[in-house]
Amino acid sequence: MRIVFMGTPEFAVPSLDILLENRYAVAGVVTVPDKAQGRGQKSGISPVKRVALERGLPLLQPEHLKNADFLSNLQSLNPDLIVVVAFRILPPDVYSVAPLGAFNLHASLLPKYRGAAPINWAILRGEKETGVTTFFLNETVDTGSIILQARVRIGSDETAGDLHDKLAEVGAEIVLQTVRLIELGRVQPRPQDSALATPAPKIFKEDCRIVWDRPSTEVHNFVRGLSPVPGAWTMFRERLIRVYRTSLSDSNVQAGSAPGSVVRCADDLVIRTNDGVISVLEIQQEGRRKMPAREFLQGFEIHEGDRLG
Question: Quick one: pLDDT at residue 41?
């Protein structure tokens, strides 16, 4: 069976690796064009391209998926199956090229958290469990028939970055199992119940400002759900401060202190919320490196009673 693999970020790498390790014939890899990165604007390649180059796999990097040359090149790879992990939305002309179809790996238990940011939203909503889903592609994003799913527990202090890495590994195993089922002709897809669907839209910087006048648990989930990217932030003396890790604290709340007020800033940084306090563990002043809060406090002037917002 000849497979064309489509993907871009680190999340997709374990899935490509596991197919190669199990000696599946990856006829080609499709990823995004190279992009300028950093201050020097050097050309950067996607993690999936890096693997393709290391393994000597045929590589396509289309600017536009409806481009006639790209479609011709894709057809020339003669794929039996297309595997998609963290790539772009495919038009029918692309996902119908392979006679066995095309399936996608999604980082949620569909139909929950359809959209671009399922990992972030699962944590933002305080979920205790999420997972991965493989499903056949159709014309409507994230709505195709489900092939396989695997459930994963979300730790109470786990960040989106932590969960991302866990789901990438679990997802790779599910991709391998899905390919084997398709190869053996044993797939029994089941339709999604759209009545149970929840959205997981892309999150932008302006959505990431911390509202301290919320319960501690919500603030904690907000910070870890956006860590490390796009990153929760707050303002202090007209400076943007990013917060990457927090923990729920049982410290006493100063009487009369307003949400966002600094309760303690000697050996640790404790901030007032709507119903208590929260400890900031990892923080970054814009333009500086990320660091533990204890180290941050050694070089940053902040006092009890100061207010973040």
Answer: 42
Contact by Cβ (8 Å): 213, 260: yes
Strand pairing of 102-106 and 81-85? parallel
Helix (H, G, I), strand (E, B) or coil at 156: coil
Among candidate residues 224, 231, 191, the one with its CA nearest the CA of residue 207: 231
Whole-prediction pTM: 0.94
Report the SS3 class of residue 280. strand
- CA 43/CA 193 separation, integer angstroms: 43
Which of 86, 151, 138 minimizes the C-alpha distance to 112?
A: 151
Helix (H, G, I), strand (E, B) or coil at 40: coil
For residue 246, CA distances in Å to 218, 243, 279, 283 come to 11, 8, 5, 9
Task: Please provide residue 118's backbone torsions phi and psi, each rounded to the nearest 5 degrees.
Answer: -65, -35
| Residue ranges of domains in the chain | 2-196, 205-299
Q: For residues 221 and 227, give the distance between their C-alpha atoms in angstroms, rounded to a whole number.
A: 10
Identify whether the C-beta of residue 214 lies closer than 8 Å to the C-beta of residue 220. Answer: no
Provide the token pair at 213. 């006048």
Which is the CATH superfamily of the domain at 2-196?
Answer: Formyl transferase, N-terminal domain (3.40.50.170)
pLDDT digits (tens, 9 = 90+) for 246-293: 999 776 666 568 999 999 998 889 999 999 999 999 999 988 999 999
Class at the top of the CATH hierarchy for domain 205-299: alpha beta
Mean pLDDT score, 59-83: 97
